[in-house]
């Protein structure tokens, strides 16, 4: 017998995308609705591929709903699976843990939410599939995995678990466990959630993170979606990633150290942007461009960053109406002064003057005051982000480069 | 660097134009009028030094490829370089032979500056000077910005700083301001935050909304039911009230029909016919009576009318005369003016006649010339005048040329003049002997100085190697050997240093460990593991002894047992101590072990140190031996390495000195040869030179002699050409005079006829003839006026006379009584009487027509009465009524019965409709039990109740709708996702604005700091020097510059007057600010240390008065000692002022 099922996780419905700087409301709305489109694509793919069931390994929601519409949207979307006779198996993760959500949803009876008080096994008799899972009772769950039931012999055993695994993937530690811990259960497939980057951690047994369904910031780039798992004669034979996201994030890290002409820089960015847009397969694309490398254009690029960003955004619109440059970051450096001006040259070395002024400790103190001035006026919840802004780290150098680049 | 020759071979409008700058001059003034190419020359200097840009505007005469600039440059170190520059992508710098020079050939000449820096710092135009003065004003005396303004580079930084600060201020200020971008973004973010909070929908809210919808539905249902019941009651009551009057009317009609039952059956149509006939008969009777009365009145009025038939018969003739009255009146008005115009024209003609000496206008008009005669005369007069004028001018020119020729002949000398070309070629073959002599002197001096310097350098070496001439003979170790010794010495030193350091470390560790042991011992007796082992041995010995004495002496057994017990107790004590203070025990054991190990290590280090010192002593002996051959006592190998380097450098410089000596010898020999050639040249040029003079003085004398010969040759050539030109002009003047006189003779042959044609004698002069022509030309207008006005006056006078005659005839015939003083007045009276007679005639005709019309109407009325008579008779018979008045009453009763019978079915039909389709009996039954009088009030009350119910229903319906809408809205959600997105977006925007502000503000701060630092470095020496220059530029009006400190404790630049008064920058005049800027710029340039580049000014002195212009010229000339200064000007007076400066050598170059 051959069949397939879909494994998804981390839908984070109605979690907003990071600010894009978009002024066009129509395009901004397309990005804003990307999360909904991704959920609808998941449902459509599940039905179209004739999957026998759908697993969602936690974090359907980003937290307690701010709007009943969030829950109703999911119920409406998932209702199509019910009508198609496809059952759904859900565990709740740290974001939509039992204690976090103040309301229940009127799910159809084919939607199965694992309880949070203990791990249980749900069976699919027709496919001889046993699903073991447990919802998070609250946000912080420590010793959690060991409560999972033992393998059911003669069945395809699937563990549905929301976990940070061994904590090496950068997310907060929820339901920590090791790969060996999971292997000891003897399950055939561990359907994991929580880590937003898709990863097949192990193939024997299969231990899989499908990644989140929709990238929400420039830290979550590339195709996002779910995994289609194919089972043949009680064995998993294939795990295939599915791109289901409604909008795509890209980070174009471009080395311009070999370029000396600004037009060439723009051309290289354009080429990278076209590649990224083609890879996004007609989806709205939000790309961050970071320029790196030692180049004589460094000062000029810093001085013209905003106008260059505007030019690049216009280039993006030439490619597609929803191809958008989220931000242009200049992380280039000035090349080492190859031929320093001789000390007795008949010219004023402005760059040296600026360098010396920038090295003055008083200048660092002045920068701190400026940072503080604007920090005091920012809303309190943005102050941490302000302090973490990488623009602050390179402020002195950027100020010097701006002056050198803007001088005639 | 100096520019001594600039060749504009092909550049802009120039072709092969060469400007030469005297290298000894303190200041060069390049004078050229506007449009002579000053700007081109300025640009050419830049293109020459730095190359043509990608585009040039100076290729309008020559093609890009053909553009060439050449120059000769002098470096301050004496080097000289001839270059040419072409436009192109590579190899644009050429030597004098057009061969490419390396691109970096000029690098050491240009002091490392770029083209834009040269343009900005070393070039200064009048506009830039004024702009600089304005910048000083803008800086408001703030010292940092003032100093920055004087440097083009820093000025740009200041402007950038201001721009960035302005941009930053537009984005954000710490004090909140509504228009700032930051606060706009912050408001948007707050709004988004509120929108997100507002969009949150809870489950409780949804449940409450559902309940509210249900309650609103129930309320609306109750009200609708109450309204339905009320409507039924109200309908019955209103129907009852509605049909009440109709039922009453039906009953009334029945009663009235009962009273009319006696009347015969007559159809409504017959009744109508009878009533029409009766009414028509009465009307006809009344009309006939009215016609009779009107006839009587009209007849009486006709009889009273009086009409003059004779007058009426003459009416056409009177009307014709009346029509002429307007024209006659106009003639009376115009006649005086016409007569006056005619008389004026005649007077003008008489005046013309008088000017031409004729008796009257009649004679004048008789002699009036034709237009052809006038034109012929005009042409001839003009041509005669022209010819006479030309002859007069030619006579004057001829006389002047003859005088010039006589003067020239008087000045002619017979001195012979020689062509200097051959001598020039010989002179140029001599070469630049002055430069050679100068170089010989300079190089000799340099050689002496260098020799002294080297001797001093050799003597300064330690150890001293001896005299310069002995240095090359010294047998010294080579660098490799010294380097080997140096490395060995360093190795020895390093090994000894390490051993010393190790020994110090070990000693320190021993001291520390000893102290640690003392400290551990200080806490009380502490057994060691050695003590424990000793105790154990003691115990074991006790046991052995005991075993041997177990069966022996009890006392000895007891003693051994006691000793064994004591030993066991000792072990227990030691063990307890070790266990109880195991950490201290461990530390003590460890310290003891370390102390032993370090003491052993110390002994090893001391032994190694002794070995190293022995090796070091052997090394020192070897080192001293290596230098003993040269008789020198060496210092350390490292010192001797440096010593050897300096010694080698001295040897290299000695080699160079030898080469320089050889060059000097060659140069001296060359100069001797040049001196001999120069003496020969002078002798062949007619001079007897003093042979003892130096070559360069002889060379200058030769150059002066050559210039004299060239000047004399040029003058002779110019005079010969001048004489030839005058002779040629004189011949031309003579020929022209003859031809003009012949032309005049031809003209005079046609003169008598032409003058006769305008009625003057042939003897008149051209002016007299022109005067006569002017009179004849003025006759045409008055002549035409006189003729036209004369005709008009005659015509008018004839018309008036005919009119008077016609009026008189008619008046005499029909109304002599109406005759008046004038014909016009008489005709007016006749016209008035004719009008009255006509109105009376018209009235009589109208009255007669009315009488006739009435007679016809009377006959028609009588016929109508006869036609109605049979119908009236039939009515009387039917109603049995002879009296016409009673007949009318009968008609009325019949009509009433017809109306009632017609009204009753209509009423019943209305009743059915009004009664909502109910029949009459049902309606009569419904009103049973209702009091009609009270019913109105009841209905009103019920209607009020119903209105209230409707209001309630409307309100409940609206409430229900609202609740349903709210519920739907909640079900759909308030799009919290979109609100969250908007909030994220607004947050990102706010941070982006903040970052944009921060970067700009930081850059502005950094620029400000850099400028301030520059100020701090430059302030004192720069201001002091600029003050001196400013004093000079302002011709002593100011004594210098001063720095004051303002309220903000910031340094502020001020000008200081001689009396000590400090003047702010704003207090200076525009021209004085320009002088201050120039002083600052020159002071800044003086501080530059590299190869001095030329400073080029363009029309800098435009705004300076004469005294300050002269003062500034002297200032610039003084600056010429440091760097070449070239001043372009189009003002002649600047050149003249420059030439008046005697204590500096000013080089004036004409462009």
Please characterize this protein's 3D structure.
The complex is a heterodimer of chains A (408) and B (1151). Chain A has a 6-stranded mixed beta sheet with strand order 4-3-2-1-11-12. A 6-stranded mixed beta sheet of chain A has the order 5-6-7-8-10-9, with no helix packed on it. In chain A, strands 13-14-15 form a 3-stranded parallel beta sheet. Chain A is 33% helix and 23% strand. With 408 residues, chain A is of the alpha/beta class. Chain A has 12 helices and 15 strands. In chain A, β9 and β10 form a beta hairpin. The radius of gyration of chain B is 71 Å and the shape is flat. The relative contact order of chain B is 0.14. The model of chain B has no long low-confidence stretch (mean pLDDT 85).
Question: Mind sketching the topology for me?
Answer:
The complex is a heterodimer of chains A (408) and B (1151).
Chain A (H helix, E strand, L loop, with lengths): L1 E7 L16 H8 L1 H15 L5 E4 L10 H16 L4 E4 L19 E3 L6 E5 L4 E5 L22 E7 L16 H6 L4 E5 L5 E5 L2 E4 L15 E8 L2 E9 L4 E8 L6 H18 L5 E10 L3 H6 L1 H15 L3 E11 L16 H10 L1 H17 L5 H6 L1 H4 L1 H12 L2
Parallel strand pairs in A: 1-2, 2-3, 3-4, 6-7, 7-8, 8-10, 13-14, 14-15
Antiparallel strand pairs in A: 1-11, 5-6, 9-10, 11-12
Helix pairs in contact in A: 2-3, 5-7, 8-12
Chain B lengths: L1 E10 L2 E7 L6 E5 L6 H13 L17 E7 L5 E7 L6 E2 L20 H8 E3 H14 L3 H8 L1 H20 L9 H18 L4 H57 L8 H37 L4 H5 L1 H41 L5 H6 L4 H41 L9 H9 L3 H27 L8 H4 L7 H43 L7 H21 L4 H27 L1 H47 L8 H48 L10 H55 L1 H7 L8 H49 L8 H57 L4 H31 L5 H7 L5 H41 L3 H58 L4 E8 L5 E7 L4 E2 L6 H17 L8 E4 L7 H14 L5 E5 L2 H8 L6 E5 L1
Which keywords apply here?
heterodimer, A: 408 residues, alpha/beta, six-stranded mixed β-sheet, 15 strands, B: 1151 residues, five-stranded antiparallel β-sheet, five-stranded parallel β-sheet, flat
